[in-house]
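Exam revision sheet. Question 4 asks you to relate a sequence to its structure. Input first:
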Amino acid sequence: MKFLEKYQWLNSCTGVELHILPDGAYDWRVCSVSLAGNSLNIDSKTEVPGDTAAVLKKFPKDKPLALTITGKGVLIRKAPAMEEIGENQLNQVFPNLEADQFYIQNFISGGQSFVSIIRREIIDGLMDVLSAEGLNILLLTIGPFTASHILKQLNTYGQEICFDGHEVQYNKEWEWTEYRYAAGKKSEFPLKIDLESIPEQYLLAYAAAFQLALYPRLAAVSLPVGQAENNLYEFQQKQQFQFRAGCILAVFFVVLLLNFLLFSYYNSANEALLSQVSQSSAGIESLRNTEKEIASNEKLLKELGWSRGVRYAWIADQLGQTVPAGLSLREIAINPLNTVETGRQRREVYDTGKIKIRGEASDPGAVNNWLYLLKGKSWVKGVNLDSFSPSSSSGDNKQEFSITISY
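Answer key, structure tokens:
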């Protein structure tokens, strides 16, 4: 994506102008820049004349380089704009030249092509020396044309600018119309990039660094040299790989962090649920133990003949108030003992909640009346006439009866 391109590119680089003097000596101008957000800062500027091998040892090897070559050996001519320059087009601009002996650079500005050439042996020999020193040249340019990217930043007056011998004329659209070189000619006023002053001999070194730093967003002016193009391609792939690897690691880190947070959240929720389940289980177990204890106590009370909190005297009083005149009671047993057989064993158990009554009746109707009367009592759950037969102990016409009352 476009807005991510700057994160896949470099943060700092160095621009170098190699100016070849008329006597064949070299003058090196070096400018290092760094990107901070949308700002390009100049970190250092150095001019080093002298022997190539000694100078190259001072170059920063940890930063990519953009190299611009000017001076002796660089030929520049203007022609009508040409998209591509083959041997025929080159001979129209530079008659009688053999194209395979030169590297050709075509800078198109408006309706003009500024065609620059330099012998292959110069470039190839220089690239071999730079590579042997461990310097990574990503962009290679000849002539002053990298300055086209920074003209708008300079404090220009009118439509002409001069710096370090280079004279450029341009129109209102900042398209170059004329170029010539006059050795020793200087600008009439100090040059500034925005608000920062810059000596004019460093202008092309800065422009080369500017072009490399903003390469993904600019139409770069470059000389098509295979070694430099390979370096640029490999650097791009490396930067993209590192960026994507960093993004993948960041995504994995975020996923792991989210996973950890979710795990912590659900683990806490699970522990809370386990605590609730444990409490519920403890409550259920306590309830079961209580039920068992109640059942055991009820069994014990039943075996002891507990009357469910009802006093025997009150029961006897209630019964006595309801006995009709024609009845005589012989036996009242509240919670009577019963014999229960369990296997080969026999034991006596209180029949709690029961009242056994035996008696005699001279009037059979009185028994029925008493049964109905007992059934109407609120404390009586049920009344059952167990037996009713003639009395065997007296000669009169009395009847024996047996009643069971549930309360």
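Marking note for examiners. The helical segments are 52-56, 87-93, 120-132, 203-213, 226-304, 312-322, 364-375.
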